[in-house]
Amino acid sequence: MIARVSLEIALRREFDYLIPEELVSQVEVGSRVQVPFGARKIPGCVTALAEESAHTNLKAILKVIGTQSMVTPKVLQLARWIGEYYCCAPETALKAVLPEAVRQEEAGFRERLFVRLLNVPAEPPKLSRRQQDVWNILLERRELAMTELLKLAKTTAATVRKLEDRSLVEIAPQISERDPYSREQILPSTPITLNPSQVGALAKIVAAMEARHLTGAQAPTVRVGAAGGTGGETPSKPAGGDACATLAKPTAATFLLHGVTGSGKTEIYLQAIAHALEQGRGAIVLVPEIALTPQTVERFKARFSSGKLQTLVAVLHSHLSAGERHDEWHKIRQGRARIVIGARSAIFAPVDPLGLVIVDEEHEQTYKQEEAPRYHARDVAIVRAQMENAVVVLGSATPSLESYYNCKHGKYTLLELPERVDDQKMPHVRVVDMRQAAHAEKGIPIFSPQLKEAITQRLERKEQTILFLNRRGYSTALQCPKCGYVAECPNCSVSLTYHRLEQKLCCHICAHVAPVPKVCPAEKCGNPAIRFSGTGTQKVEEAIKKLFPQARCHRMDADTMKRKDDYRRILGDFRAGKIDILVGTQMIAKGLHFPNVTLVGIIYADSALHQPDFRAGERTFQLLTQVAGRAGRGDVEGEVFVQAFTPFHPAIQYARRHDFQGFYDQELEFREQLKYPPAGRVALLTLKGRSEDKVKFSAEHVKRELDKLVAPAGETATAGFKDLIIAGPAPAPLLKAETYYRYQIMLRTRSMSKLSHALAKMVAGLTLPDEVTMAVDIDPVNLF
Ligand code: ADP
Ligand code: ZN
């Protein structure tokens, strides 16, 4: 037997290896194996099995890694699609589908010694005092880890061994699963009676799941009783594949659930998941990394993972230790966990069979991976669901233009939840013209008089306030008022940010750190009155402490969130009312639920507007809407102050009126004119290197190659590429980052799969100077 193996080094091809006799029973498609490659031993993934090979002198597989195939055939197929569509080496795509912790052999299961009570004699055994302590604990617990037992009994292993000698207990190694949530006390929850718009939405999702279940090739599998009211036996269903076998490919089953925060989307997710479990299928829930708070996880665990169903929900995100990630993943692979909640890469979780994928906050940028493979988890979710006959629900209060457009064009089904569940009104949003405030104060104040007044009121009424500014540090730049000198990063084309507490200048791109100069370092200047311009969260915090010394104020941004527990601790304090004012970056903008917050202040709303990115307006609209949604979730109506220097910008005005449709219509018009997504598709080629000349020269070379796509020499343009628009090469908006110069070429087309195919071909034949590399980003999200 021959195994075709994709090695974990990007060679863009696969290699054949012999399967030695003794390994035949273990090697299957998806197995991870170690193979010889030249003088090295390299891990790889078996992608196919064959009877014979076109090559002779094959080497043999050295060993199989792990006891079970790691990549299911379905996920393997998905990796292939990613390689093709996102124009990257298949090896790179394959690597992405397995967490590092699972690929690394070392991070295996952890075995620990467990002590188990063997038999309880009728007569209480005669024991020493220390032995008695151990015995009492065991009588109560029956079985527990040795380390825990020793801690509780305050003794040494020798004491326990004596009990073992008398055959009272057994000591044996056992796999001990690392459970990141073992310390949580989670109370079970039951399904809530839905309101009419929720009922309508859920019915459509469930109907699609039913249709796909019947048409799919899946045989009915073990039933897992859903927790809560929906449990019990499910009605029997016809065996997969027969009843509707004549139906062709099922129609698209992607839903966009559009509803403001608090409109009951999560409750719909929970009940749709319960339905998937009844069908004997599993579910994947994607949430942005930043929203993976204990609060979010808890809601899913409470419904499905309490009581007897302890392991039903697995969690995958970057704050877990490698060991925890390893164990959570294997829980899924072994089918013990049927629901996965995680960040971007959880879309590759080996849930099988898969019935439902939820992508919450589908408009979030973090779903896009910014290194190869540059995939978009939302789009991968849709492709995966199609391959596996599953249903996708995208949820958002501010859908991406792409998803909304797909609804309008019949690709997705739009489900709307127009109101908050508790009938609460949307917060009152006031836009404050900061130009007036600046005029009155002869300088730019951090707080307008209106916002100051509002904060004072909240402090008096013992209500809470959130102040939002999307920029950490103290001030954005260090500038000399005399000569205009600005402290810049030597590696990147951005100014350094002043961090006052730490007394340093810091680059937010490459993390370069520099001391704060005492006088202006510009030659011939030396002005000692060098000062700082622009505002960061540190400065906001400091200003609050000065203005409201009695207020308890806390800051939450990447600088204050250094340790694993900081985030949950501060949010816990805020929830408990131990903090009056929370200052933060986008870290506090998402998905948090605090009933006592009645005021939200957005310090500088235009910050994202004036960026060279066609999505700048969309991002501002989304951010303002999201942040505003933090206000007034309790009994008191919320109030939001948006401070802006361009108060009449449409993104700000539509956000003020909570008018998504209005924003969408005018934004789409602009995108259509310029053929930007969703009216067209974009691919971004970024060339980078240390020599600007070489980068520029190479970019021009690539441009000439691209021109051939439009009209190959001696031919007319191939039909599909008539609409290809090539812009550039041009310096990237961030010309220099981490010492590399960057040039970009932007491509716009209507048919992306065709373009990525052509790009892959072009890349394969391309020779660039050694010091220059090119990244291909299909459907880019970040244009810098
Ligand atoms: P979203 O995900 O849209 O922000 P949630 O599902 O979190 O909304 O709902 C907001 C709050 O309302 C939650 O506390 C939830 O338990 C509750 N809720 C949801 N649906 C209902 C309902 N039909 N009746 C009463 N309360 C509900
Ligand atoms: Zn830098």
> Treating each run of at least 4 consecutive H or I residues as one helix, how many helices?
21
Averaged pLDDT, please?
82
State the secondary-structure class.
Answer: alpha/beta
Number of DSSP strands?
A: 30
Widest sheet, order of strands: 11-12-10-13-14-9-15
Major β-sheet, in short? Answer: 7 strands, parallel
Whole-number radius of gyration?
A: 29 Å
The portion of residues assigned to helices is 25-40%
From the spread of the alpha carbons, the general shape counts as globular
Beta-strand residue fraction: 15-25%
Unreliable stretches, pLDDT < 50, 5 or more residues? 216-250
Molecules bound to protein: adenosine-5'-diphosphate, zinc ion
Distance between the termini: 49 Å
Task: Give the structure's gist in a few sentences.
This protein is α/β, with parallel strands linked by helices. The chain is globular and about 90 Å long.
